[in-house]
Structure formats: C-alpha cells, structure tokens
Write a structure and sequence with these properties.
about 20% helix, SH3 type barrels, alpha+beta, 2 domains, about 170 residues, four-stranded antiparallel beta sheet
Length: about 170
C-alpha cells in the first residue's frame, strides 16, 4: 500500500489548541503515528475536543471499520493521499445541495421555535459558541464545550422528521 505524502502535519501536541486545524482534518486521509512505532492510516471521522482522541475509518478488506486512537497515545499526524486501490469511505454522491439547504432552513426554524438565538455565517449555523456544519446533522456540531454539543445534539434529535420551516 503506497502512500504519497502531501502535507506533513507534524507533532500532534502542537495542534491540540487549534480547533480550526483539527476541524480541517475531518474526512481527510491521514497517517497517525502512535506509541510503540504503530501507524494507523485512514479517514478521520471525528476528533474529541476534550481528550483529542481521533476516530479513524480504516479499510479492512472491502469495508471500513472505526478505530479509536486515544489522544495521549498520538505523536504525529500526517495528511496523505490514499493509494489508488483504497476506495473513499465517504460517498457524497447521494448528498443533494437542495436537501442540505432545506435541512439548514429546518434546523434554523427548529431552533427559533425553541427560542434559541441562532444566526447564519455562510454555510454554517451559529448557535452561541457552537457551529453546525453542513449537512447539519447531529454529528456536525463544532464546539469546544462537550456539554453544549450534547444539548444541541439532543435538540436536533428531537426535531420531527416531517418538521417544516414556518
């Protein structure tokens, strides 16, 4: 499995305080060096804002599995290009921009109905110190406060499937 290195990120501990950088790693193919010279390669699914653990989607045979790498064990992160025999784990062909726009309006309307101060910034929904990124699902919340993320996730999960903007 050949990996062409595009961007060497370097020492992970220096980037822990940079949430924008950590967010930029989501859905990217990376190599993660951990203790005892073990290297994991896969697509970044999530990064824990508290412990800085990384959840990778690692290819095993024909399917992907999730691997949780504890933040304290990570020494380096390197952004890479997967070899041609590695298929992308995220299939974005089914995501329609019209559906995403509709979902955005539904979420904003739902927050306003629940009397929450919500605003927009380009494609993002701003709710206090939290940002909800496209496609605006319960796992697309970006904040450094885990309690806030859980509360917003709960509110989104309580929105009825047939809810329409008013």
């Amino acid at each position: 499995m050949d990996i062409n290195i595009n961007n060497v990120v370097g020492d992970y501990s220096t980037f822990k305080g940079d949430p924008e950088f950590l967010l930029s790693l989501i859905n990217k193919y990376v190599k993660v060096d951990v203790l005892k010279n073990v290297i994991y390669a896969g697509y970044v699914l999530a990064i824990d804002p508290e412990q800085y653990s990384i959840v990778l989607m690692v290819l095993h045979g024909d399917s992907y599995s999730r691997v949780l790498i504890p933040g304290h064990a990570i020494s380096n992160v390197t952004e890479s290009t997967p070899s041609s025999d590695i298929k992308p784990w995220l299939n974005t062909s089914h995501i329609n921009t019209e559906d995403v726009s509709r979902r955005k309006l539904m979420i904003i309307s739902w927050f306003r109905k629940n009397l929450l101060p919500v605003s927009e910034s380009s494609d993002n929904i701003i709710l206090g110190n939290a940002i909800i990124l496209p496609p605006y699902g319960p796992m697309d919340i970006c904040t450094d406060n885990l309690m806030v993320a859980n509360q917003i996730r709960d509110i989104i999960m309580k929105m009825p499937d047939d809810y329409g903007p008013l």
